[in-house]
Fold this protein.
Amino acid sequence: MLNLRVTLYLPDKYTKTSMSKFNVTTLGQFIIERQNEIPVAKGEFSRLLRDIGIAAKTISREVNRAGLAEILGDAGSENVQGEDQKKLDVIANNLVIDCLTRGGEVCAIASEENDEMIYIQSPVSNNAKYVVAMDPLDGSSNIDVNVSIGTIFSIFQRVTPVGSKPDLSDFFQPGNQMLAAGYVIYGTSTMLVYTTGNGVNGFTLDPSIGEFCLSHPDMKIPAMGKTYSYNEGNILSAPNGVKEYINWCQQVDKPTNRPYSARYIGSMVADFHRNLLKGGIFIYPPTAKSPNGKLRLMYECNPMAFIVEQAGGVADTGNGRVLDIVPNDLHQRVPIYMGSKDMVGQLLGLLHQ
Ligand code: AHM
Ligand code: MG
């Protein structure tokens, strides 16, 4: 295995000794070190991950200067689901599409912001082996109020022959066929977390060198946590099992003698990230308004399900494993219960009784 490291030497004024050494592993170095774990064309796949990292850095820059650049607010258009598109949604979408198009490793993209599959029509991309499903800016209701938002992505190997025109069959693969998935959280710092099926690793953007640096190697979600992330405004139309579980969370008959805490940001990436680090459960069941749940399978639930499973957690629709669903629509919605293994297990037990 290659062992590439950037060694930064800081001048005297930053250090007690004359020279101090900081070893960091950048995302680019890590991808190359780990590319042998990928069973498919390694160099191309590494370049694709690198392109996503570049798009993430660019979106991070736009998110950070959003207020200054007057790009907050509505773009004046709607996406396929009839939701207002925020200006930053549109900017982020264009940035990722542009980055992946130029990179040449992807033949088609599915995005929350586009009704149809985006076919990248160029001789180079036609020969590409991968497709990407993404939510360029998740948690968009939080954009205008300076609360954490994120980008979510998943990568599949196409099933149509290389060189031919890609079609929806390339996307309608169950999540268990995913090659990689990840998210970027634009929070107090910007982090990129991803998996290729060999554990989960997190990288924090160091603005001083403009690189994602490995900060959270081999992330594992605790089997139990003390927080639940659920929009309790929907409790009246929730399945009985969810009502019972939330009621149980609020009781004090636990080893800690106190109820669990409710933590719901309204940005799934941010809620998921906290639960991944601290333990917890994220719940988005069917509601009166969204009888199939609100969150989209291909670019919201599947990538998070892959990550949480790789970290030792569980992701279920209440009717089975998220990753086993064969999609039939790019914007298909599913209920989701995911997070710490024991918490999700308890909720599923109540749903099935
Ligand atoms: P979005 O992709 O349009 O931002 O919608 C997805 C978001 C999730 O990030 C979040 O968990 C959920 O919608 C919040 O929905 P609600 O306000 O119904 O609780
Ligand atoms: Mg979203």
Observations:
- The longest helix spans residues 42-64.
